[in-house]
Design goal:
The structure holds two protein chains of two kinds. Chain A is built from no helices and eleven strands. By secondary structure, chain A is mainly β. In chain A, the strands form two sheets. In chain A, strands 2, 4, 5, 6, 9, 10 and 11 form a seven-stranded mixed beta sheet that branches. Chain A is globular, with a radius of gyration of 13 Å. By secondary structure, chain B is mainly beta. Chain B is built from no helices and eleven strands. Chain B is globular. The chains are: A mainly beta, B mainly beta. The interface between A and B is medium-sized, with 22 and 23 residues.
């Protein structure tokens, strides 16, 4: 059974960089069959796809985030990470990591989510 | 970008009812449509992928249909644990996108 777990600070100051890590267990992040994705959910709102990364390091991020997204992967630790720069209160959300089936791009395993609040 | 529109945004129903939720894409997405269920305080859970394929472990009362731009999620007989929120998601092209959600409430 694949398990994903997000970790990182729950509070980030405005204009700083939000950093989260997702640790994958029960499966290898180096499998060529999957992308590894970040999604967020503003309080009481719907889901917004942030982007995904392949084990090789290739990435795709949502243009709506205007180039503020950096993703990386550490295959030795079976982890992938998200950095979101220049955060504002509008970036306050629950952040989820998830596994994406590469061929059909549905998200079959999700982490439990972590709330990140942007506030001074 | 492909916009996904779900309707209704909320509905009231009773245990045992049959309910249908609709998802419309702003352009054709073939069958690249997936449905998720989200319980309060929890991560979304995949129900249906490829418009009509049931994810393993999901009860058979859930079914999906459609292709092109119009899709439906049907729950044949609502159970108490089904009164939560449902999202559609297109996986035809990036950026991946979700519908706004449908909250199923107890009448």
């Amino acid at each position: 059974q694949v398990h994903l777990q997000e970790s990182g600070p729950g509070l980030v100051k405005p204009s700083q960089t939000l950093s989260l890590t997702c640790t994958v267990s029960g499966g290898s992040i180096s499998s060529g069959d999957y992308y590894w994705s970040w999604i967020r959910q503003h309080p009481g709102k719907g889901l917004e796809w942030i982007g995904y990364i392949y084990y090789s390091g290739s990435t795709y991020s949502n243009p709506s985030l205007k180039g503020r997204v950096t993703m990386s992967v550490d295959t030795s630790k079976n982890q992938f990470s998200l950095k979101l720069s220049s955060v504002t209160a509008a970036d306050t959300a629950v952040y989820y990591c998830a596994r994406v089936i590469k061929r059909t791009e549905y998200l079959d395993y999700w982490g439990q989510g972590t709330l990140v609040t942007v506030s001074s | 970008d492909i916009q996904m529109t779900q309707s209704p945004s909320s509905l009231s129903a009773s245990v045992g009812d049959r309910v249908t939720i609709t998802c419309r894409a702003s352009q054709s997405i073939a069958s690249y449509l997936n449905w998720y269920q989200q319980k309060p305080g929890k991560a979304p859970n995949l129900l249906i992928y490829g418009a009509s394929s049931l994810q393993g472990g999901v009860p058979s009362r859930f079914s999906g249909s459609g292709s092109g731009t119009d899709f439906t999620l049907t729950i044949s007989s609502l159970q108490p644990e089904d009164f939560v929120t449902y999202y559609c998601q297109q996986s035809y092209t990036t950026p991946l996108s979700f519908g706004g959600g449908t909250k199923v409430e107890i009448k």
